[in-house]
Design a protein that fits this description.
Elements (H helix, E strand, L loop, with lengths): L1 E5 L3 H12 L3 E5 L3 H10 L15 E4 L10 E4 L6 H11 L4 E5 L4 E2 L4 E2 H8 L5 E8 L4 H5 L4 E6 L3 H11 L4 E6 L2 H23 L4 H21 L10 H10 L6 H12 L2 H7 L5 H16 L4 H11 L4 H9 L9
Parallel strand pairs: 1-2, 1-4, 2-3, 4-5, 5-8, 9-10
Antiparallel strand pairs: 6-7, 8-9
Length: 332
């Protein structure tokens, strides 16, 4: 089968490489001619995946019209780029096509979940089926064949199973779920909790503190998601606790590394204003904070992060206040 991947960063390339190694032909859309030449001539993408050899079935292109020669479209871009992807796809794609989304987070112009935004904005004459492939995975480790498990999520379980079979192999195992709401909110909120985990480490706290944060962060994710119609079990699976643990424990995570810098240096405003990377969790904090307040959902960790990044309260005071809230029973 033929795939057209929109997104030539590390994750888009890693997923495209899995597909290529599984015998599929993949066009990866890129705008950087240097990257295109490096991929096609040397099967390398040194900026994103050092010392990784990409499969020869993976071909980079700057011709978006090749989307019309593909059976599937794989979207793997930052959430802020989803709107542009939809506009370009609607303009170019001339047939009903199956889509696979690998973007985590929320679409910034609408505050909607990614599948929700795609379903509402892709033209009916181009969107056939839609699934998301989400869960705990770092691109480099996938390319190096580290054993990885992800989830194929769709309202149409038969299509989720189709995507499951397309991606699965001896090092890349895919499960299925129809809880799109739970998986997408979990995949988004975990980025915010990962920032908090980095802050904790940057402040000098260690494993006790991180374990407490991850556990209560999971409860907060589940509480919010269930209120929005998600299934509780989803938060104890790959897109919930799996992705949360991965993202909260590694410097490979941009969100964790960003939080660590904030905790270490404490000059929040300066760090935010000078940041040039996409930090999905930073935007998520504000969206979830606003929604939680509107719907009266208890989200103390998100509230604390909002105080740090949007009101610029003193970090150590915020952490102290979080610990000294009224005592209560442990529950979601």
């Amino acid at each position: 089968m033929k795939f057209f991947t929109i997104g030539s960063g590390a994750w888009g390339l890693a997923l495209s490489n899995v597909l290529s190694e599984n015998g599929h032909h993949v066009f990866v859309y890129a705008r950087n001619n240097e990257l295109i030449n490096e991929i096609n001539e040397f099967h390398k993408a040194s900026k994103y995946l050092s010392d990784v050899n990409l499969h020869s079935n993976l071909v980079a292109t700057n011709d978006f019209n090749l989307i019309n020669e593909s059976d599937f479209v794989l979207i793997a871009v930052p959430s802020k780029s989803i709107k542009d992807v939809v506009l370009k796809t609607n303009e170019t794609l001339n047939k009903k096509t199956d889509f696979i989304n690998a973007t985590k987070g929320l679409e910034p112009s609408s505050n909607k979940r990614i599948q929700e935004y795609l379903i509402e904005n892709l033209k009916p004459e181009v969107l056939n089926y839609l699934a998301s492939i989400l869960g705990p995975g770092f691109a480099y480790e996938v390319c190096k064949h580290n054993l990885t498990c992800l989830n194929s999520i769709s309202f149409n379980l038969d299509y989720a199973k189709k995507v499951q079979k397309i991606f699965s192999n001896a090092y890349f195992r895919v499960y299925v779920s129809d809880d799109v709401i739970g998986a997408e909110f979990a995949s988004s909120i975990k980025n915010a909790i990962a920032i908090a985990s980095g802050i904790i480490k940057g402040l000098g706290y260690n494993e006790n503190s991180k374990a407490a944060l991850i556990t209560r962060g999971l409860a907060e994710m589940a509480r919010f998601g269930i209120n929005e119609g998600a299934k509780k079990d989803t938060f104890f699976g790959l897109t919930g606790v799996g992705d949360l643990v991965l993202t909260c424990n590694s410097t490979e995570s941009r969100n964790y590394s960003f939080g660590y810098k904030v905790g270490k240096e404490k000059d929040v405003k300066k760090i935010v204003e000078s940041n040039t990377q996409t930090i999905e969790g930073l935007y998520t904090i504000k969206v979830i904070y606003d929604l939680a307040k509107l719907k009266k959902i208890d989200t103390p960790i998100i509230d604390a992060l909002y105080d740090i990044f949007y009101i610029y309260k003193d970090i150590e005071k915020v952490v102290n206040d979080l610990m000294l809230r009224p005592l209560k029973s442990e529950k979601i």
